[in-house]
Design goal:
Number of helices: 5
Structural class: alpha/beta
Strand order of the largest sheet: 1-8-7-4-5-6
Order of helices and strands: HEEEEHEHEHEEH
Helix content: 40-55%
CATH superfamily of the largest domain: Glutaredoxin
Radius of gyration: 20 Å
Oligomer: single chain
Number of strands: 8
Shape: elongated
Amino acid sequence: MVNKEVPRRRRWWRWLLEAALLAAVLLAIHLYQTRNTVRGEAPGFSARLLDGSPVSLQDYRGKPLLLQFWATWCPVCNLEQGSIDAIARDHAVLSVALDDASPAEIRAWMSGKGVRYAVIADPSGQIAAAFGVQGVPTSIILDAGGVIRFVEVGYTTGPGLRLRLWWAGI
C-alpha cells in the first residue's frame, strides 16, 4: 500500500510542477507583450470617429470602457469582431483601427462584418503610440475613472473581456 501511494504522490507533484511551470511561461509571455503599454491613468486624446463626429476619451468617464486596437488585415482581429460587437451592446466600446485604409474602406469592411461600434481611424498610429500599443489586437480595459486596469495582446474571448469589464466596474 505504501508503494502505491508514493508513485501517486509523485505524479500529483509532477502535475502540479508542470502546471506551475506552464503558468509561469504564460505570465512571462503576457508581461513581455505588454511591457511598453501605459499603466495607470490613460493618456487623454481627442479624435474623429469614422462618421466625422468628435470623440474624446473623456466622453467615456463614469463607466468602464473597452478600448480596442485592431486592423482590417489582422486575422485574429477578425475573429474577435463578433465578440466585440456583442460586448458593445452592453458596455462602452471605443475602437481604434490601425490601418492604411481610408475611412471609407474601413466603414465598408465594418459594414460587411455587421460591426456597429464606434471606430477611430488612426493610420499614423498616434493614439496607439500614446498607449504603447505595438501589436494588434490589443484590448485595454479602463475603469470609470479612466485608469487602465487590464491590457491584453492577442486573441481574447468575449467572456474574458466581459469579466474584465465587470471587474473594472467594481
